[in-house]
Amino acid sequence: MAGAKKLFIKTYGCQMNVYDSERMAEAMGASGYVEASSPDDADMILLNTCHIREKAAEKVYSELGRFKPLKAAKPDLKIGVAGCVAQAEGEEIMRRQPMVDLVVGPQSYHRLPAMEARVRSGAKALDTDFPAEDKFDVLNTRPKARRGPTAFLTVQEGCDKFCAFCVVPYTRGAEVSRPATKVLAEARDLVERGVREITLLGQNVNAYHGDGPDGVWSLARLIRALAEIDGLDRIRFTTSHPNDMSDDLIAAHGDCEKLMPYLHLPVQSGSDRILKLMNRKHTAEAYLRLIERIRAARPDILISGDFIVGFPGETEADFNDTMALVESVRYGQCYSFKYSPRPGTPAAERDLVDPEQASDRLARLQALLTQQQREIQDAMVGRTVKVLFERAGRLPGQMAGKSDHLHAVHVAAPEVSAGDLCTVRITESAPNSLAGQLVAA
Ligand code: 5AD
Ligand code: SF4
C-alpha cells in the first residue's frame, strides 16, 4: 500500500493479549495502517501490556524510555499503551511518560481507530472505560486474509472469582461471555481462511455461558457445535477454574474427538490453608478428585497447571502439601511463579514470605515439575501421534508442529506444508520438544 502508515505492536503476557493485538492490527488496518517490521520504521508504536506479575508497570516505563530517541528523531511518531497496565495505571502513564499519546484499556480496543485520529491531530487520548457495546462487533470486520493453521478465539473475558492475589477481576473486569452465534461465525470465518485448530480463550473460559439460538450455552455445548464445522480438526480451550469444570465438559473430553487431550487446570497450591487464604473456594482433595474424574473420561489427557509459591502465610508444611499434590497429579506441563503483590488486591496487604525461602521453594517445585514434564514427554518415544504442522523448523527440510498433547514435534519432511495434519512416529525426546518420522498415511 503506497504511503501507508506503519504500526508496530509489542505484545506481553497471555494468549488473550496475542488475540487482542491481532484484532487491534486489523482495526488499524481499516485506518490505513500496515504492520511495521520494527519500532524503527513505525509511525505508531503500541505496547500491549500485562499486569499479572512482578514489576510489570516498571517494565513498561523502561520500554517506553527506550523509544525516546525514536520519538525525538521522528516527532510524528505516536506512542500508545494498551492492555492491563493501561487499565490499571490510566492517566498515571501519561503523567510519568509525557511522550505517550494514547492509553487504551482492553475493553475499549474498538475505539482505537477514533483515538488514533485524535492523536494525529495533536491531542492525547485516554480510554479505560468498560463500555456497554460489544467491542468484538466492531473489531471483527476484518479483511479475509489467509491465516496460519492455528488461531486463538476469545469467547469469554474477565473474572468474578477474586482470588486474593490476582489483578484480572480489576483489569479485565467482570465475567462476560460472547454470544455463541458470534463465536461460531468467527470460527467458520477462521476455517475458511485456512485455520484447522482453534484455541478458545477466556480468563475463566470454562465458566462460559453465552447466548445461543435456544438459550444459554455452556462451554461444552459450544465445543460440540464447533466440532460440527467441516475443516476444523482441533479444539482447545484455556484457562479453566476447577470449580467450573462441569459434568458436560468432562464428558466432552471423553466423547468429542476434536477436543484435544490437554487441559490447563491451575490449582495454585496444594495446601487447604493457603487455598483458603487465596480465596480459591476449593480444597486440594476436591481438585484431585476432579482430576480423577477427568482422567476416567479421557485416560491419556495431559494435565497442565499454574502454581504460586511464597503466598503470604505459606509455611514449609504448606509447601510440602503442594509438592505432594504435584506428585499425585503428575503434570505434563506447568507454570510456576513466586508470589508478587499486585496493588489493589487483598493479598497485597499481607506480610511477605522471606524472599530467599520463596526462591528456594520455587526452585524445588520447578525441579519436580520439570522432571514430571520430561518423563511424560519421554514416554511418547515409540508412539504414533498426529501432528499439525505450523512452520519450517530450524534445520533445512525440517518442519515443526504440535501433537494432540501439545508437544512440540520436529520432523525432517520437506514434502510437508504448514497446515498439514500428519501421522508421525516419535523417535526422540529433547528437553522441550520431540522429534519423529512421518508415517505413510
Ligand atoms: N503473583 C504470582 N503469580 C500470579 N499469578 C497471578 N497473579 C499472581 C501474583 N500476584 C499466576 C497464577 C495464574 C497465572 C496466570 O499467573 O498462577 O494462574
Ligand atoms: Fe485471577 Fe484466575 Fe483467580 Fe480469576 S480465577 S481471580 S483470573 S487467578
Q: Number of DSSP strands?
A: 21
Bound molecules: 5'-deoxyadenosine, iron/sulfur cluster
- Tally the structural domains: 3
End-to-end distance: 43 Å
How confident is the prediction overall: mean pLDDT?
Answer: 94
Q: Assign the CATH superfamily of the largest domain.
A: tm_1862 like domain
Helical element count? Answer: 15
Radius of gyration: 22 Å
Helix/strand structural class: alpha/beta
List unreliable stretches of 5+ residues. Answer: none
- Strands side by side in the biggest sheet: 2-1-3-4-5-6
| Shape, principal axes of CA atoms | globular
Determine the CATH topology of the largest domain. pyruvate-formate lyase- activating enzyme
The largest pleated sheet is described as: 6 strands, parallel
CATH class group of the largest domain = Alpha Beta
Q: How does CATH name the architecture of the largest domain?
A: Alpha-Beta Horseshoe
Helix percent band = 25-40%
Question: Roughly what fraction of the amino acids lie in strands?
Answer: 15-25%
Protein architecture, described:
The chain is α/β, with parallel strands linked by helices and 441 residues long. The protein folds into three domains: 5-127, Rossmann fold (3-Layer(aba) Sandwich); 138-378, pyruvate-formate lyase- activating enzyme (Alpha-Beta Horseshoe); 384-438, Nucleic acid-binding proteins (OB fold (Dihydrolipoamide Acetyltransferase, E2P), Beta Barrel). It is 34% helix and 24% strand. It is built from 15 helices and 21 strands. It has helices at residues 15-29, 56-66, 68-73, 83-89, 91-96, 112-120, 135-139, 168-171, 180-192, 219-226, 247-255, 272-277, 284-297, 316-329, 355-378, and strands at 5-11, 33-35, 44-49, 78-82, 102-104, 125-127, 150-154, 156-157, 176-177, 197-201, 209-212, 215-218, 234-238, 262-264, 302-309, 333-338, 384-392, 398-403, 408-412, 421-430, 433-438. The strands form six sheets. The chain has a six-stranded parallel sheet with strand order 2-1-3-4-5-6, sandwiched between helices. Strands 17-18-19-21-20 form a five-stranded mixed beta barrel. A three-stranded parallel sheet has the order 7-10-13, sandwiched between helices. Helix 11 (247-255) runs parallel beside helix 13. The chain is globular, with a radius of gyration of 22 Å. The mean pLDDT is 94. The structure holds 5'-deoxyadenosine and iron/sulfur cluster (SF4).
